[in-house]
């Protein structure tokens, strides 16, 4: 809880600085293929694969100094998540209405791929370098920290590893599990990038942007209302799942 309040205080301070500073603003659009995966703090639930997704955002850089700006935007993150291998049987989607009731009693070694769509609001501090002497139209940037508030839209799950298991005829795909994924997501991260000025100046002209960002969720992305069976005993499923993202960013600023 203390960590949550500190993060909220830091984000609100950044917003306050944006509104109070004398700024120049440039706008842009960014697109990014994304690679995401999940990890947990429970040894019997392991990371078992990544998702290829897509993100897009409309962004604004509000300069409060010649080479420094607060950057914020509005966008979408699609097919975010990853695969988790569950070594224990259990009911991992207690709140969801699944296509078959038997999916509330998954066997051991069930493989679940989460595929979550978010509405995202990113906020970051951007620092720019001088233009490179040999290439006067190019310069580098660092975004750190990057905080992204995510509002869950739809969440799906592919449940595999069931073929040949007694009681299951086949695997199941695109089960709707939104009720078992937290509606709010907050992540932190950082990014590096390069800007190439196409016209005008680097602050009020048109620039091509390319970059690489990393982010990870701060809070558990799942609700943990389900249960699992360990050594024959039913216990609460209270593992914490963290999402990690690497995004390859391409965009324009103008």
Proper CATH architecture: Beta Barrel
- What coarse outline follows from CA principal-axis ratios? elongated
Beta percentage is over 45%
Number of domains: 1
Q: Overall pLDDT, averaged?
A: 90
Q: How widely separated are the two ends?
A: 40 Å
Q: Report the count of strand segments.
A: 13
CATH class: Mainly Beta
Helix content: under 10%
- Kindly report the spatial arrangement of strands forming the biggest sheet: 1-3-4-6-7-9-10-13
Structural class comes to mainly beta
Number of helices: 1
What is the string of SSEs from the N terminus onward? HEEEEEEEEEEEEE
CATH topology: the name is: Porin
The value of Rg in angstroms is 21 Å
Largest sheet: 8 strands, antiparallel, barrel
Identify low-pLDDT runs: none
């Amino acid at each position: 809880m203390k960590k949550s309040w500190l993060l909220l205080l830091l984000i609100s301070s950044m917003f306050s600085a944006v509104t109070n500073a004398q700024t120049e603003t440039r706008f842009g659009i960014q697109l990014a293929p994304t690679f995401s995966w999940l990890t947990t703090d429970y040894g019997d639930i392991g990371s078992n694969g990544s998702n290829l997704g897509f993100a897009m955002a409309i962004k604004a850089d509000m300069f409060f100094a010649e080479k420094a700006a607060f950057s914020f935007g509005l966008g979408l993150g699609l097919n975010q998540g990853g695969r988790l291998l569950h070594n224990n049987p259990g009911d991992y989607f207690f709140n969801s209405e699944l296509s078959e009731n038997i999916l509330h009693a998954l066997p051991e070694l069930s493989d679940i791929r989460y595929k979550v769509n978010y509405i995202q609001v990113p906020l970051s501090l951007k620092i720019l370098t001088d233009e490179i002497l040999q290439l006067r139209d190019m310069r580098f940037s660092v975004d750190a920290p990057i905080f992204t508030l995510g509002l869950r839209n739809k969440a799906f799950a592919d449940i595999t590893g069931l073929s040949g298991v007694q009681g299951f005829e086949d695997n199941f795909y695109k089960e709707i599990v939104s009720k078992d994924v937290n509606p709010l997501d907050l992540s932190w991260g950082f990014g590096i990038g390069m800007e190439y000025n196409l016209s005008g100046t680097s602050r009020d002209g048109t620039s091509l942007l390319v970059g690489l960002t990393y982010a990870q969720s701060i809070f558990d992305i799942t609700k943990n209302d389900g249960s699992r069976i360990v050594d024959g005993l039913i216990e609460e499923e209270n593992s914490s799942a963290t999402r990690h993202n690497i995004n390859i960013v391409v965009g324009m600023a103008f």
